[in-house]
Amino acid sequence: MPLRRDPSFSDPDRIYNTIIDAHRGLSDAESLSLNAGLVLLLANHIGDEGIVREAIAIARASVMSMG
Amino acid sequence: MTAAVDTKFAYRRSPDQERAHPAHHPVVIVGAGPVGLVLALDLAGKGHRCVVLDRRQGPSEGSRAICWSKRTLEIMGRLGLADDLIRRGVTWKTGKVFSGTREVYRFDLQPEAGHARPAFINLQQFHLETHCVAAALRSGLVDLRWGNEVTHVAPSATGASLRVATPDGAYGLTADWLVAADGVQSIVRRELGLDFEGQTFNDQFLICDVKLLIDRPTERWFWFDPPFNPGQSALLHRQADNVWRLDFQIGADADRNEETRPENVAKRVKAMLGDIDFTFEWISCYRFHCRRLSRFRHGRILFAGDAAHQVSPFGARGGNSGIQDADNLAWKLDHVLRGLASEALLDTYDAERRQAADENILASSRATDFISPKGAGARAFRDAVLGLVETEPFARAFLNSGRLSVPTAYDASALSTIDGFAPHDALALRPGAAAVDAPLGNGWLLSALGQGFGEICFTREPATPRHDAGLPEIRSLVVTDDLACARYGAADAPAVYLIRPDQHVAARWRRAAPEDVRAAYRRAIAA
User: What is the DSSP letter of B504?
Assistant: First the structure.
């Protein structure tokens, strides 16, 4: 099964803000740590190396194109 | 400090030095470290003479390699040395990992019973070498020449010729087979103009062995970011004779000369262990490499151990993989020397041990990336693992303070016969894997295998009629013990295994006709 790229949340604003809120009051370093922990937790939950690789490729390409 | 002057290691003039023309020997091994000595002992056990040259006149200085794995001990068991080494060393199987001062994880490397050998022993390299040297002298077949420094090597189609410097001047030798087990700074490698492929890590590590009388558990303790070495890692490990190995990450820019001054190291020791009395055995500072030669066989010259490949110390993969090189090479060289196999068998030494080196380099590079992360992003992930590991089981799998040495399964080996078991059935014992030990009556499976090829029929019904392969080279064995049958996937249905002399699985079947076993044997010697 490929990485899902269409919307999957019925209330996308709510999940987006839940993630943003988690960073409130954190230093940049703490934010980085929070994100790292989230990535590891979610990657483990997905449990599919192909999906994780696909997500990495898309996210990395978007970062590179911004530079 | 290390051993006192030991006559076993003394330079002695060889009759070869009197000859007008270079003396010829079937096998010459350069380097009398663990790898060269184990190879010499294994060859001697198979009836072959060899010459071993080493420029030193004594065992290694400092403890160097200290952790010897279960697989190494099984190999040493085959050579008759394991019991002595285990008695001399300290046995351990558990470790703890700390983040700061908090214990975040503990592991047990041998959670199950029913193995003759422990998961690990710690024993200073020079002790292991001393035992090997004594055994080599007892064999009467190993011509050990200390104070013999190889200065020139010239390969030929039928062997190699060597120039050797000694305290009495230089002499020449020729050999049918030359094995370079002469370490990181291999002279043979230099003489052949061969370069390594791989990477060097910038981080520096300060290593010291201290003798102290304290009562501590015999466990491997690893710290990330401890208060006594902020932002860096540290390792504490026990060796024989109340000696402890302390290893401090000190960063890429640390001043090596300052750091290794005893008074400065003493401050670090006390910061780690408290205000205790101790004496230094050894202080050293190292950077490491993860790299290997592109090929381990160059005609009649074979490379083994650090001369062929290097890894970081995290995981005890240097010494152990070197000994497994010797284990892989000895029986193949034996078969070629006896005319039972063609030289093509030695190409599989190259293929199998390169695979092992790649596995070890990968494991050790990954451990290094975890222990000393490059960049803020990598560090954030590492710290996230440390933060989650106490409560989240999944994070324990990510925690990497060094993946400790395990034998390589030669999955792509040309010597293996296609697996006769169903997919995923008893995967740990698939063709190419190292045989696993199990109790056998009053003894052990691996000891029952002996030195050559073995055909083992695992069956819970010993009355089952069976036919062995009828080859004198293959020793036949019937095993009915419950645990052994279970480990080899024969709890419910019988199984037949063909095991190589290095105790790796060559082939296995649910049912095998004698001609199947004979065909697998021919394949396993590259016939």
Answer: B
Q: Which of B376, B377, B385 shows the shortest C-beta gap to A40?
A: B385
| 3-class secondary-structure state, position B238 | strand
Domain for residue A11, yes or no?
A: no
B214 at A interface, C-beta within 8 A = no
The SS3 call for residue B343 is coil
Q: Which domains does chain B have, with CATH numbers?
A: 7-90+121-195+290-360 (3.50.50.60), 427-524 (3.40.30.120)
Contact assessment for residue B352 and residue A4, using Cβ atoms and an 8 Å cutoff: no
Number of domains chain A is built from: 1
**Within a domain: A45:** yes
pLDDT digit string (tens) for B349-365?
Answer: 999 999 999 999 999 99
The 3 state secondary structure assigned to B161-181 is EEEEEECCEEEEEEEEEEEEC
Q: Which pair of tokens denotes residue B232?
A: 């860096």
pLDDT tens per residue across span B205-259 = 999 999 998 878 899 999 999 999 999 999 999 999 999 999 999 999 999 999 9
pLDDT value of position B6: 72
Count Cα neighbours of B107 within 13 Å in the Cβ-side half-sphere: 18
Judge: A36–B392 Cβ closer than 8 Å, yes or no.
no
Does A44 contact B394 at a Cβ distance shorter than 8 Å?
yes
Residue A7 lies in a domain: no
Cα gap B42→B517, rounded to integer Å: 25
Q: Does A36 touch chain B (CB under 8 A)?
A: yes
Concatenating the DSSP letter of every residue in B350-382 gives HHHHHHHHHHHHHHHHHHHHHHS--HHHHHHHH
Q: Is residue A14 part of a domain?
A: no
In A, minimum Cα distance to B394 occurs at A44
Nearest residue, CB atoms, A32 vs list B377, B385, B392: B377
- Read off the DSSP letter of residue B285: E
Distance CA B48, CA B40 (A): 9
Q: What would the two tokens of residue B86 be?
A: 């285990």
ipTM of the complex as predicted: 0.94
The ranges of chain B with pLDDT < 50 are: 1-3
Cβ distance B384 to A29 less than 8 Å, yes or no, reads no
